[in-house]
Design brief:
The chain is α/β, with parallel strands linked by helices. 34% of the residues lie in helices and 18% in strands. The protein has eleven helices and eight strands. Strands 1, 2, 3, 4, 5, 6, 7 and 8 form an eight-stranded mixed β-sheet that branches. It is globular.
């Protein structure tokens, strides 16, 4: 079993730098799908699909023979901060932590206060930053059936990314943000649904949150802090980001044979009778 595969959604061709980093390596393979034009090397041509649709197709079609599955947006630029290359840094971090999810510190092009917080960046080699950008997620193989398929019920945009981050909550001590490398996004497509209308995107996030909120068992904490405003979809993000940034909670390393797919762990945070969880025990 190889350590890693990298998965990419792209219009016509994969990012050439990413191909050179990840394709046909000793410990890594590279797969992609396209949505604007067919490509003979792609797993599939997926016209008229949303970003989340194609992510789900990738998760379904990729061979299930890897320890980790890295979903990486095609327009990301990686900037390692040490002596290791891009793939070498990812492998190093996976072997160091055996995380549930690995991500990297956000650089220019992202709307987050962490981008300009050089003090926080320099203070840590690794930290826990909840609700990070879904453009870069490296997922432990035992959690693929927990996170996928991503939700499409509310449009398949930022609402699905927000839901993904909500589903990370049971594993937050094992959701590792490495400061050893940053990634940035110099391309911002104004025609993507979430960029065309921020108001519609926020509305869909709120709809998703109202739908899943009855299943979230820790909502009393949000109510005590935000009152009736806890029904705003961003309150849960604000709560967890503030908690981990200011409490100095340290990431947790797990054993090599860890199985993160734990019904007991899930049930501490979610009522699994909610319709979203009906199929978590089915491939």
């Amino acid at each position: 079993m190889k350590k890693l595969c990298v998965l990419q959604v792209t219009p016509e061709e994969p990012n050439a730098d990413h191909v050179s980093f990840f394709e046909n390596k000793e410990n890594c393979d590279f797969y992609f799908v396209t949505h604007d034009a067919d490509n003979k090397k792609a797993l599939k041509y997926c016209p008229n699909t949303t970003w989340v649709d194609t992510r789900n197709i990738l998760a379904e079609l990729v061979p299930k023979q890897y320890e980790y599955y890295a979903f990486v947006d095609y327009d990301f630029i990686f900037e390692p901060k040490g002596h290791l290359g891009v793939l070498e840094q990812i492998i190093f971090d996976l072997e160091k932590w055996n995380p549930a999810v690995l991500t990297y510190y956000p650089g220019k092009g992202f709307i987050t206060p962490f981008v300009n917080d050089t003090e926080y960046f320099n203070k840590h080699e690794y930290s826990i930053i909840p609700f990070t950008h879904c453009g870069m997620k490296v997922i432990h193989h035992t959690l693929m059936d927990w996170f996928f398929p991503m939700i499409t019920k509310f449009g398949g945009g930022v609402d699905a990314c927000h839901m993904f981050n909500i589903l990370e909550i049971p594993f937050l001590k094992n959701v590792i943000c490495s400061h050893k490398m940053t990634y940035r996004n110099d391309v911002n497509d104004p025609e993507t649904p979430h960029n065309r209308s921020g108001a519609i995107s926020k509305m869909n996030m709120d709809k998703m949150w109202h739908w899943i909120l009855p299943a979230y068992k820790k909502s009393d904490i949000l109510i005590s802090k935000y009152g009736n405003k806890h029904v705003d979809s961003l309150c849960i993000k604000e709560f967890f980001v503030s908690l981990f940034k200011h409490s100095e909670i340290q990431p947790k390393r797990e054993k090599n044979d860890i199985n993160y797919f734990s019904q007991e762990r899930f049930e501490k945070f979610f009522d699994l009778n909610h319709e979203w969880f009906n199929n978590i025990n089915f491939k």
